[in-house]
C-alpha cells in the first residue's frame, strides 16, 4: 500500500498542478551557476483552464461512488464540472418522487466549490411530466456557454421525451445559430447523453455539418462502458460510469468508475481518464483499508465457466476453456477443486491460480464421461474454491468462489406459438402478460415495457453466431421494437447488444425480422414492445440460427 500511496499522492499533485497551481511567477533566490530545477516559466498561460466530466450516476445506481467523486473533485479543483446525464433514477410522473430524487442530487452537487453544469439523460427526462419538472427547476434542457476561447454545446438527446436519441428542429436550429455566431472560438465541446453516432440515422449530422472544418470534441454517456471513436477526424468519446450500473471489469472492458479530466490550452484539449479507485484521500491507510476489505468480501465474477454443449449423439470428451479474472486492486491466489461426479471426470480436478491486479488467466479443462458416451445430461460439476487477498495491514480476506460446469443440450431453432401458454416468456417490466386463443398479449403500462425468456432454464444452450428473430404481431401502442440478448459474460441488457425494427401501430397483423450476431451463446433474450402504454399482440415468435 505504501507504493499505492505514492502513486495516489503523485496523481493528486499532478492533477492539481495541471489545474493552474503553477500560474504566476516564482520567487526563488538565484545564486548563479547550476540550479535544481528545469525552468521557472509557469506551465499555465492566461486563458488556460481545466474541467471535469462526470459520467452516469444512475441506471442500476450504486450508492457512494458519485458522492465520493464530488469530494475528490473538490480536492483536485477543476475550474468547473459538466455531467453527461442520468443524474436521477427517474422514470416517474409522480412530482413527489421527482422532487425527492432531484433534491438528493442537488444536495450532493451543491457541495462542489466550482460550477456544475447539468445535462439531461433518459433517466432524467423520460416523459412529458419529467420534462416539465426539469424546466421548472433548471430552465432550458439544452443550452450553451463559453469559457475562454472555447464553446460548450450542452444538448438534450431526449427532445422530445421518450426513446431517443433525438433532437427537435428547434434545438438543432438553436445550436446552428450558436455555431454561426461563434466562428472565432478555438475549440468546441459537445456534450449530451445518448450517443447519436452508434446505430442507424445520426441526428447529430446537422451539427457536424455546421462544424465542418472546425475543431471539436464530443462526449456522451448512456452505455455504461467507455469507448473512443475517431469520426470525421474528431474525437467521439462515450464515458463509462460514476456510480451507474457496472460490473467494474476494468479498463480492458471499458467498465469502471471515472471522471474525464480535460485541460485546455493553446494546443487544444488534453484528455485524461482518472479512475475513481486511483484517487485516495489522506485517510488512505485507515478508512480506505476498511473500505477495501468490505469491497473484497463482496467480490463476485472471479470465474464463470461456460456450459458443456451436448449434441444429439451424447456427451463425448470435451475441452472447456474459460477465464479467471481478478477485478480488484490487490493480487489474489485462487485455489479449489471440482466436486466428485460419478458420471463425468474433470482434469485437472484441482486449481491453484495466482492472479495479478486486473489480471486474467485462461484455463482449459478436459471433461470426459466415465463410461464412454453419455446419452443423457450429467449432473453439474461444481468448483468450490477461495480467492485470498492480502491487505496492507497484514490481514487477509478470503472470498468464496463457487461455479458449476453445467451440461446443456445443443440449441435447436425454436418457435413460440403460445398454444400452451407463455412458453417460457416472463419477468415482465412495465407490462402485463397473458395468453388468449393462442395469442400472447403484452399490455404495456409504461414507456419501457419488456419481457424476457431464458434458455438455460430448460437445460438447453442458447444460439450463437448469426441469428434471426421472426415475429408476427399487431400493435396499438407507439415506438419501435427492440431486442436485447444476454450472455454468461454479459448478463445485463446493453444497447451494445441490441437490435430492433420499426413496427406499425395500426392494429393490423404484420411480420417482422430482426437480425443480429451474438459472439457467445445467448443465455436469455429480452423483447421491448414499443415505448408507450398500449397493447402489443404476438401470433408467434421464432428464433433461428442462420
Q: Can you describe what's shown?
A:
The protein has 546 residues and is α+β, with helices and mostly antiparallel strands. It is built from 7 helices and 31 strands. The protein has a 6-stranded mixed beta sheet with strand order 4-5-6-7-9-8, with no helix packed on it. Helix 6 links the parallel strand 6 and strand 7. It is globular. Residues 1-24 have low confidence and may be disordered.
Quick check: average pLDDT? Answer: 84
Give the strand line-up of the largest sheet. 4-5-6-7-9-8
- By DSSP, the count of extended strands is 31
**Which strand-content bin applies to the residues?**
35-45%
Rg is 27 Å
Give the termini separation.
53 Å
Q: What would you call the structural class? A: alpha+beta
Alpha plus pi helix count: 7
What is the helical fraction, as a range of percent?
10-25%
The residue ranges in which pLDDT falls below 50 over 5 or more consecutive positions are 1-24
Can you summarize the main beta sheet?
6 strands, mixed
- Tell me, what's the shape? globular
Which terms summarize this structure?
single chain, 546 residues, alpha+beta, six-stranded mixed β-sheet, six-stranded antiparallel β-sheet, globular
